[in-house]
Amino acid sequence: MASAPQSLPLFYNQIEPLSSQVHADFRTRSTDRAAFLAGQHAVPVTVEEFPLVQRFMPIVFSVGEDPVPLALMGLNEGVNTFFDGEGKLVDPNFYVPAYIRRYPFLLARLRPDSDELSLCFDPTSDVVGNFEEGEALFENGEPSEITKNILQFNEQFEQAGARTSQFMRELKDLGLLMDGEVSIQPEGAGQPFLYRGFMMVDEAKLNEMRGDQLRKIVQNGMLPLIYAHLFSLGQMRELFARQMRSGWQPEVQLVG
């Protein structure tokens, strides 16, 4: 059901460094829709977002060697219950994760032998380009205020990403991750629908923690984040119900 982004980050088709020479006349314009979200059922989130995200979406962890936290907007591939087919938000009270809000910009390492990150963007996006409308990215050859704000947001996102990576490493080191499975029995269905293909915290192991290990996750702030994740799993059934209300009709028993 959930897998980590590959090579190019999720949603990005191309990555190009933002340059005051090449993009001197470029502007960024606002939009009320994100076509890249149409049919997207999961998005990465950072640990800082767990308290807000858990009110709307289940938070699970991707499978693989380097799992990442994912917020689920749908339980099935191609199903997004919060954005319509044009990528327009259908619930004004929904919390939009930072990973979505940063698009089409991101910080990227342009050379593998360098630790320096550069502000880049996806040139296939329709919100950045040589437009007549929108806010200028450069003024007199220097980054504009909007570009400085975009850079600051992306720097904060990278810092949150580093803290999230540390959280995930500690979850693995503590042996708290397990293969996840959710069974949902809709009214009138002969068999339950099973969703797998993700990881979750093993609550039984968490409850068995004692001494230094328990003290560590209390002192470093991990414990409330873990509980935010566990509480969020209660949104699984609500998400299934949202799918049903939106007209999605499963024909066969599905395994994520």
Structure description:
This is Multidrug transporter. It holds the Pfam family SapC. It comes from Sphingomonas pokkalii. The chain has helices spanning 50-53, 98-102, 145-173, 203-208, 211-219, 222-232, 235-245, and strands spanning 16-17, 27-28, 42-44, 59-61, 69-72, 105-109, 117-121, 128-129, 135-136, 138-139, 142-143, 177-179, 182-184, 193-195, 199-201. The protein is α+β, with helices and mostly antiparallel strands and 256 residues long. The chain has one domain (16-245). The strands form six sheets. It has a three-stranded antiparallel β-sheet, with helices on one face. A three-stranded antiparallel β-sheet has the order 8-2-9, with no helix packed on it. A three-stranded antiparallel β-sheet has the order 3-5-4. The longest helix is centred in the middle third of the chain and has 29 residues, at 145-173.
Uncertain runs: 2-6, 251-256
Q: How many helices in DSSP terms? A: 7
The average pLDDT score comes to: 91
Question: How many domains comprise the coordinates?
Answer: 1
Distance between the amino and carboxyl termini: 4 Å
Instruction: List how many beta strands DSSP finds.
Output: 15
Strand order of the largest sheet: 1-7-6
Query: What share of the residues does DSSP label as strand, in percent?
Result: 15-25%
Query: Which quaternary structure do these chains form?
Result: single chain
Portion of residues within helices: 25-40%
Overall 3D form: globular
| Rg calculated over all Cα atoms | 20 Å
Secondary-structure element order, as H and E? EEEHEEHEEEEEEHEEEEHHHH
Largest sheet: 3 strands, antiparallel
Structural class: alpha+beta
